[in-house]
Amino acid sequence: MLILQKGFNYSQDGPGNRLVYHLQGCNFRCKWCSNPESMNGEDKNAKNYTVEELLSEAKRSRMMFFDGGGVTFTGGECTLQYKELTELLKKLRAEGINTAIETNASSPYLLKIAENIDYLIADFKHYDTDIHKKWIGVGNEAVKANLEKIFASGRQIHIRIPVIKNINDNPQGFVDYFKSFDTSSAVFEFLSYHEFGKDKWTEDYEIEDGFVSDETIEKFIKLFKQNGMKVTKT
Ligand code: SF4
Q: What is the pLDDT of residue 35?
């Protein structure tokens, strides 16, 4: 598996203290991506590991998985390496190690992969497919289709919305979309735009002022709660 970076992180990539693997490669081109070096299929800092090497590393790290922790795969987009990812997830679970992924939710294999995941985190960036395509490079149809199947199945899902000024800072549009479904198995989180990855962009960085106020995030929280949806902050 091609891994860009790895390390431990607490609370933001699933429950407890987790060993987090950033897999190389992404099928999206979010204009605000904080890991632009992960987008392409290769990077000078990415390294290949076998499933057995990663399994062995996770087993050696058991003592670090406190407070319900385990292993998380993120990206880039971890589901692009779905064959190896599925094999590793199954082996981790067989060892009793908690598994999580953070995904852009576009993979046709997502539901299959999710069978071996304890904690599923999915981004949802825009409810309008044309705007999604403008800022991300592809429409949102595949993401919506996956989310709708997950809502119908009732499995747990943690949905993260990165909120960016003048791009997707209208909570009503999100609520109008989500309220058509039974989202009782979902919890929603709103992430304020930041520019931590801006210096790593080699192409022009096109977001001019994406910062949102605390009041904007509060509006999201309030409207989602008013519509019966669960909200969290990690
Ligand atoms: S989905 Fe994530 S990794 Fe891929 S381009 Fe968007 S922000 Fe970057």
A: 93
